[in-house]
């Protein structure tokens, strides 16, 4: 029963107007559910992009963004980023900004650059704030300054937020740029939604084995999700499950119950790891616990391999660490040669454990790729010897394959600094195959 209530709450939130304020207590009262049930449903709505929660503002219904527009921030997200408060125009928090303008010029010059759906970053210049709102731009006031009541009324009327923050203009621009950059990195990451097969073949829980056999003949597939009357995934059935079963036996009797499922926002790397770890060939994709599609191991592997061939637009920490190292061949494996940069150090000036782990795992992956293992996931890594490595020290990371099987591999890892061994590790990896 709680699942039905959960789904009703999600549906209720989807039907609310964009910009509506949402509270646990109001949802619980209006839909006659417990506050715990309301809270869990609102959290799921946030995970799937229906609402956004902001300090000192609350939870607001927002427009669900497509991946193509992921780099565009909503004004609600700007409030979070700058740790701000909303002085006016609260109903426009769901809107997205196209670009931000720093108001460090005369009004006559500024007006040439401000357009609709911009964000003007300015101090206590009331004339500039009013001018921006009249054009259709939201306003972010730096330095903790307030604004007058007339401007707040214009913001409310035009549904354009006026946001206050204590940060200075330079800090604000840095924070917003960082948020946009993070979004671009997320945009590059392949998610389930990029490859999901929608409207998949499935079996109702009331189906018989004979129905499964007929669907195998019609589709050439042998694995199907099993759903109840509400399209919730209750199981998965494969040829291994029904081997030897009578034609008129119930699917429910032979299916694998409580199967692993994923959402559209799950990364392909995570799905690949799950498929290898659990030995799964197909995973149902759900939204609000209902079946919307499936992903197969073959599709996941193909997408991951294609992703590796694409030019990267943005640099992750992983990219930044590796950019200072050159890959070279060595007997039985590969080596990475480079220098410990300031960015790779910890608070006392030594190489950070995170940066070293990045170098170790990537050296191991490079060695496995050389052995024709295109895609692998780490099963375990053990560091059993380590000495501190100082800033700007040249190092060599050597990866040597110890053992190779059809499904896994073991790599011996050594870091040398000025000819001395400073780290030893062993990595075990599982191979992602089709």
What does this structure look like?
With 434 residues, the protein is α+β, with helices and mostly antiparallel strands. It folds into 4 domains: 2-55, Arc Repressor Mutant, subunit A; 67-188, Udp-n-acetylmuramoylalanyl-d-glutamate--2,6- Diaminopimelate Ligase, Chain: A, domain 1; 193-305, CBS-domain (Roll), CATH 3.10.580; 317-431, Roll (Thiol Ester Dehydrase, Chain A). It is built from 15 helices and 21 strands. The strands form 5 sheets. The chain has a 6-stranded antiparallel sheet with strand order 16-17-19-20-21-18. The chain has a 5-stranded mixed sheet with strand order 4-8-7-6-5, sandwiched between helices. α5 links the parallel β5 (99-102) and β6 (118-122). The longest helix is centred in the middle third of the chain and has 20 residues, at 169-188. The protein is flat. The protein starts with a helix and ends with a strand.
Shape: flat
Q: Quickly name the level 1 CATH class of the largest domain.
A: Alpha Beta
Average residue-wise pLDDT: 85
Largest beta sheet: strand ordering: 16-17-19-20-21-18
Count, helices: 15
DSSP strand content? 25-35%
End-to-end Cα distance: 40 Å
Compute the CA-based radius of gyration: 27 Å
Low-confidence stretches: 310-314
Alpha-beta classification: alpha+beta
Percentage of residues assigned to helices: 25-40%
What is the total domain count? 4
Second-tier CATH architecture of the largest domain: 3-Layer(aba) Sandwich
């Amino acid at each position: 029963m709680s699942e039905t209530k959960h789904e009703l709450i999600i549906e209720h939130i989807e039907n609310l107007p964009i910009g509506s304020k949402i509270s646990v207590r109001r949802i619980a009262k209006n839909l006659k559910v417990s506050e715990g049930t309301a809270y869990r449903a609102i959290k799921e709505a946030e995970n799937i992009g229906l609402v956004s929660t902001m300090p000192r503002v609350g939870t607001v219904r927002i427009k669900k963004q497509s991946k193509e527009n992921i780099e565009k921030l909503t004004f609600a997200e700007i409030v979070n980023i700058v740790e701000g408060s909303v002085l006016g125009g609260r109903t426009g928090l769901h809107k997205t900004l196209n670009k931000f303008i720093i108001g460090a010029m005369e009004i006559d010059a500024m007006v040439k650059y401000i357009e609709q759906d911009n964000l003007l970053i300015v101090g206590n210049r009331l004339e500039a704030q009013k001018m921006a709102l009249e054009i259709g731009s939201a306003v972010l006031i730096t330095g903790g300054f307030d604004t007058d009541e007339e401007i707040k009324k214009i913001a409310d009327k035009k549904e354009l937020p006026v946001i206050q923050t204590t940060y200075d203009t330079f800090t604000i621009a840095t924070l917003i740029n960082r948020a946009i950059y993070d979004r671009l990195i997320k945009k590059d990451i392949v998610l389930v939604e990029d490859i999901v097969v929608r409207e998949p073949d499935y079996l109702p829980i009331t189906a018989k084995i004979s129905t499964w056999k007929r669907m195998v003949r019609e589709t050439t597939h042998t694995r199907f999700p099993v759903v109840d009357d509400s399209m919730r995934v209750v199981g998965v059935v494969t040829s291994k499950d029904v081997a030897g079963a009578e034609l008129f036996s119930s699917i429910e009797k032979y299916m694998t119950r409580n199967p692993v499922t994923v959402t559209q926002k799950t990364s392909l790397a995570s799905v690949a790891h799950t498929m290898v770890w659990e030995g799964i060939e197909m995973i149902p994709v759900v939204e609000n616990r209902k079946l919307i599609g499936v992903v197969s191991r073959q599709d996941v592997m193909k997408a991951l391999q294609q992703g590796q061939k694409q030019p990267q637009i943005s640099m992750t920490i992983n990219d930044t660490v590796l950019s200072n190292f050159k890959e070279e061949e060595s007997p039985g494996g590969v080596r990475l040669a480079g220098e410990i940069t300031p960015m790779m150090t910890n608070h006392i000036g030594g190489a950070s454990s995170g940066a070293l782990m990045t170098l170790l795992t990537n050296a191991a992956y490079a060695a496995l790729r050389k052995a024709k293992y295109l895609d692998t996931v780490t099963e375990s890594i053990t560091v059993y010897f380590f000495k501190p490595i100082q800033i700007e020290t040249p190092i060599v990371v050597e990866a040597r394959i110890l053992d190779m099987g059809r499904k896994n591999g073991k790599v011996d890892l050594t870091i040398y600094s000025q000819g001395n061994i400073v780290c030893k590790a062993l990595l075990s990896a599982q191979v992602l195959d089709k």
